[in-house]
Amino acid sequence: MLLLSFIHGFISEEEFGVLHEALQTKNPIFPHSDYERFTLDTLEESEIFAEFRVRKRDIERLADALGLPESFVCHQRTRADKIEGLCMVLKRLAYPCRYSDLIHQFGRAVPELSMITNAVEEFIYQNHHHRLTQWNATLLSPRKLQQYADAVAVKGSPLKNCFGFIDGTVRPISRPGENQKIVYNGHKRLHALKFQSVTLPDGPIAHLFGPVGKSV
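Structure tokens predicted for DDE Tnp4 domain-containing protein:
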């Protein structure tokens, strides 16, 4: 519309230049069309394990075990089959990476990668989160809390009611376009989100709080 307005004389050349610059996307443009779409069969076994931390023969089995549908369709009609969607999630979980780091592997634009990954993660959470949350009542029952406290006291703790250990971690994030001060960590000198957890004496995380910015 901007170009047509200039061609038909509704706006001047100067106005066209100002509006064109103002309407440019702030997101970097990645040449995703230069890469081929993802195909698991074209990858070597060693490359698959390095990228996704799962053996090639186990990816299909994992998709079936999770009950993933044959394909995921996003709200704007972007479609991905279950293996491609699962591999996107596995890649993101194998090592912290940005969506732009997935372009060469999947040949998709960043918005597509984000929507597909979120759709797969949402499906997995909605259908399988109970496998973890069902243990909350058992792990934190009064009897177990007393057992944890007794175990800590036996090790020489002066506290008789300590059942867990608090620890925190700072996870770096990309610099946001707005409200940067909210998530800027002056101690680490980077933009990050904070998480705090309570670990039980026998290993499991009893409580996870976050993410929060620097103010909490």
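The two ends are 46 Å apart (CA to CA).
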